[in-house]
């Protein structure tokens, strides 16, 4: 029985590890060697959401459904949808990346005065997932990370696309979409940090 459980756990972990993909679009990891700090810029333009033509169509659908049940709830949803970016996703990415480096070998932030390089994190795809108790789905995001020197943003020294970064709460306790999505940003940050540590040598 113990052997069977161990096999199941290994298969689960393997599946999870390979669920997130990374494709280099330009440059090489070695181009980031020796860089200790990065400023971050977050970009959510042209965001693709499954089953909807665009983000505007997604918001209209969700707002209309909520307003039918409770007038004004649609606007509250729209407000939190955008507020979660600065309040949840971005801090979660920064926290999850930075805590991987025990001695602060590499750090990221939005306003690092001494950082000479910037990472633009362009989220291109977002699936909020859902949790209705008896059924749930993880959130998922795709993002392109572009690296450049602050004074020369047109010269991309490295660019990589991550797909299927999944977010979920422990024991399925993730009923809030903003929380689920923030965990996808945490996963993205952890994977990126691990790649940077291993490959930028």
Q: Globular, elongated, flat, extended or rod-shaped: what is the shape?
A: elongated
Strand order in the sheet with the most strands: 1-8-7-4-2-3
Radius of gyration over alpha carbons?
A: 19 Å
For the sheet with most strands, the description reads: 6 strands, mixed
How many helices? The count is 4
The share of residues in extended strands comes to: 25-35%
Count of domain modules: 1
List unreliable stretches of 5+ residues.
5-18
Organism: Mariniflexile gromovii
Signal peptide: 1-21
Keywords: Signal
Protein name: DUF4468 domain-containing protein
Structural topology:
Elements (H helix, E strand, L loop, with lengths): L1 H18 L1 E7 L9 E7 L11 H15 L3 H26 L8 E3 L7 E11 L2 E2 L4 E2 L1 E11 L6 E12 L9 H23 L2
Parallel strand pairs: 2-3, 2-4
Antiparallel strand pairs: 1-8, 4-7, 5-6, 7-8
Features:
single chain; 201 residues; alpha/beta; six-stranded mixed β-sheet; two-stranded antiparallel ribbon; 4 helices; 8 strands; 27% strand; DUF4468 domain-containing protein; signal
Structure report:
Keywords: Signal. This is DUF4468 domain-containing protein. Residues 1-21 form the signal peptide. It is a single chain. The chain contains four helices and eight strands, in the order H-E-E-H-H-E-E-E-E-E-E-H. It is α/β, with parallel strands linked by helices and 201 residues long. The chain has one domain (20-199). The strands form two sheets. A six-stranded mixed β-sheet has the order 1-8-7-4-2-3. Strands 5-6 form a two-stranded antiparallel ribbon. The protein is elongated, with a radius of gyration of 19 Å. The N and C termini lie far apart (43 Å).
